[in-house]
């Protein structure tokens, strides 16, 4: 079905859409700015005809206006990581064959030479704003809308192309599943080049008519102050953010700590995603704030596929059940569906939420599907009706002595040790066992623990073949912008030692 505005934006001036620093932007003002920017992008054309427009912008009104403006003008929005290196940006821009890049004036010096070499017009947001809105094209749902690059944890980042219909499906399933309403208020401090920030927070909130408080980056003190003031009803973050908030909480005096905990306790929903939430963190958050985190599973190519229930049991260490309208199956190495609980398999997904293609990469697109099912590359097991993620088939599943070990399971045991703040587990080649478990650990400030103590701790809680054979203590774990540990970097660290 055609739509003249996607996603739909309210036009009422008495409802606040965005809080951006000291600015409060109504839905009416945002709608008007989007239409004028779309008109400016068109520059007299009838339709952008899927021109790739990239933007290098932090969370703010300019970002939101440009994202919707590109959609309204018929272009493909390419949001970029504002923390990316020039080499990474070179890959993104060249891969997408971007024609125009929009960035604030302060970033033009850094981006100028790259854009000149690639033949890309470098512009400021204000340069694109028309004096008044003009005629805008009709947008049908099977048109390409956005290109978001994968994290690149296992291969070179690929451009994931979603249509307007894909985005609609990804948003609307969460509106019902997570109880969104126009009365909601949510902070947005996550990177806006991933679906967690773009779809789960920004797009769901605007579709519902809720208010979004924009932060250019995560600031524990600033966010905590607004939480303590009771400003939010919904909160979504990655596990590392919850760790930082607990650390901030520990540094507050009794009154301030109580106010922060009460602010979280009053919210109707807190969500954790983009990386596995360790069970100790899940339990610690519940003990301190009274909130039971809702953990879910998704990825760039599919939006969200699995979720713990908004109403009902939210099980620690599990990501729940398939969302309405999303088909999920586990497949074994023989490419056959797994029909019984307790048997691990690869997650495969089918539904209107699944992306269209990897941009300009027909081979990778074809290889990622089997009989219409998207192969996620993630392993999971169903336990008492709930899915539990075991990790990436390529890096989180360790094959040792005929066993398939979940790195995430071993990490959860390590994180339960009182001296361990962060943990990452990988498999390393071994002539006898095929692979053995290696653990990289970050200790808590002032804590001391030996490799022998770690082995003893794990030996009491894990089968012997799961106990780390190698233990390395490090100052920090390498992570990408979404807080996921980049395990190939750990392997490189191990081999370079």
TrEMBL record:
Coiled-coil positions: none
Similarity comment: family membership: Belongs to the ATP-dependent AMP-binding enzyme family.
GO terms assigned for molecular function: medium-chain fatty acid-CoA ligase activity
Domain AMP-dependent synthetase/ligase intervals: 12-359
Keywords annotated in UniProt: Ligase
One annotated GO biological process: fatty acid metabolic process
Catalytic activity from the UniProt record: 3-(methylsulfanyl)propanoate + ATP + CoA = 3-(methylsulfanyl)propanoyl-CoA + AMP + diphosphate
EC number, UniProt record: 6.2.1.44
Residues covered by the AMP-binding enzyme C-terminal domain: 409-484
Organism encoding this protein: Sphingobium jiangsuense
Identification of the protein by name: 3-methylmercaptopropionyl-CoA ligase
Sequence intervals crossing the membrane: none
UniProt keyword annotation of Ligase present: yes
